[in-house]
Design brief:
Blueprint lengths: L1 H4 L3 H9 L7 E2 L5 E2 L2 H15 L4 H14 L3 H29 L3 H10 L2 H13 L7
Antiparallel strand pairs: 1-2
Helix pairs in contact: 4-5
Length: 135
C-alpha cells in the first residue's frame, strides 16, 4: 500500500492511528489489510496535503464528505468548494494586516479597482474573521 501511494509505511501507520484510514481486515499473521477504497483515500489525503491542508483539516473534511451524500459528483463538488473556502480564509488572514494598515482613501481606491463580487467577497471574509469592513 505504501509503495503504491508513494508514502512510507510509517505514514500508513500514523494515518491509521489518527483515523484517516482504516484497515478492512487483519491477516492470519495480524497484518493490517487495506482495500482499494483505502488506496483512493490515501491519494485524496496526499492531494489535500499538497493543497496545504493540515491533517486535522483533512480528517474533518473527509469525515464530513462521507456524511453528506454517496453521490460522487456532488461529493467532489462539495470538496472543491470547501477547499476553496479554506484557501480563501487563509488568504484573507494573510492580507488582513496589510488591509488594516491602509488609510481610508487608499482602501476606497482599492475597492474601486476590484470587481463588485471580489470586493464583497473580501469584506465578507474580513467579517468572518472578526475584522471590520474594509472602509
Amino acid at each position: 500500500m505504501a509503495a503504491l501511494c508513494e508514502v512510507s509505511p510509517r505514514t500508513i501507520d500514523y494515518y491509521t492511528k489518527i483515523g484517516l484510514i482504516e484497515p478492512t481486515e487483519r491477516s492470519s499473521t495480524n497484518y493490517r489489510l487495506y482495500g482499494d477504497e483505502t488506496l483512493q483515500q490515501l491519494k485524496r489525503i496526499e492531494w489535500l496535503k499538497q493543497q496545504k491542508l493540515t491533517l486535522e483539516e483533512i480528517k474533518g473534511l473527509l469525515l464530513g464528505i462521507g456524511k453528506v451524500t454517496s453521490e460522487e459528483a456532488v461529493t467532489d463538488r462539495l470538496t472543491a468548494l470547501r477547499l476553496q473556502m479554506i484557501q480563501l480564509e487563509r488568504e484573507a488572514k494573510a492580507i488582513a494586516p496589510i488591509l488594516e494598515q491602509l488609510k481610508p482613501k487608499q482602501a476606497r481606491s482599492l475597492l474601486k479597482s476590484l470587481s463588485p463580487q471580489t470586493a464583497a467577497c473580501i469584506e465578507a471574509l474580513l467579517l468572518l474573521l472578526g475584522k471590520g469592513p474594509l472602509v
